[in-house]
Amino acid sequence: MTSVSLYLSVLLFQNGIAEDTLEALTATSEEISYLQMLSEGGFVMIPITLLSLLAIYVIAERWRVLSNSVMDNQRFLDSLEDMLKKGEMRQALQYCDDMDKPFSRIMKQGIKRLGRPIQDIDDAIKNAGKREVHFLEKKMDWLATIAGVAPLLGFLGTVTGMIQAFMQIQTLEGNVNPSVLAGGIWEALITTASGLAVGIIAYGFYNYLLGRMNRMIFDLEDSSTEFIELLQKPANKKEQQGIPQ
């Protein structure tokens, strides 16, 4: 056989192997669906799946709370100041109830104590602010826990899967088909990939939501300080404007 004929034979043989491999991979991908692949991860996939559902719930619920809490604090404070200048305390309280936002609820506690010492008003506003901050940060610890626990569960599933794979090798005294061993290993790695995916998503949204909360809390504190300064205007000016001391 000439060298040219030998070279052509090798090419045809290699192409045949490549085509067979591609067909095998295609058939395997068609036979194994995504849900079936997750089910191969073992019992550890159950808590990972539950954590993913819990993370989705917390993210959606906190997102809704933060979106509903947004308001123009400065505009609200200006309207409130106009009402207090006219001595319309009842209208100011009703205005706070109608808005029903964190800042309006804080201001309501301060307005209800107008006429008392400024320290009492300041304490009431701070206490109301603490309650609103607690409400904003509610369930965020769940998201932080999910971000830390999900990857650990994934590693646990991988370790237990590898233990089973090596036990199988020991049972068969090393006479193991490599394809069977590889199948056991990739099944064990499914839990790691799933746990990392859940953890990364939970951690990313935790930081994003926490950033929004911190900005909102800063605005609440800044606007509350501005309201206290409004009440501390000179006494003669407050009397002229009808704002109780």
TrEMBL record:
Record-stated family: Belongs to the exbB/tolQ family.
Chain segments annotated as transmembrane: 42-60, 142-165, 185-206
MotA/TolQ/ExbB proton channel domain sequence ranges: 100-221
Keyword presence, Amino-acid biosynthesis: no
GO cellular component: plasma membrane
Compartment list: Cell membrane; Membrane
Protein name: MotA/TolQ/ExbB proton channel family protein
InterPro entries found in the cross-reference section: ExbB/TolQ_transport (IPR050790), MotA_ExbB_proton_chnl (IPR002898)
PANTHER family: PROTEIN TOLQ (PTHR30625), TOLQ-RELATED (PTHR30625:SF17)
Keyword Transmembrane attached: yes
GO term, biological process aspect, one: protein import
Topology class, membrane: Multi-pass membrane protein
Keyword set, alphabetical order: Cell membrane, Membrane, Protein transport, Transmembrane, Transmembrane helix, Transport
Coiled-coil parts of chain: none
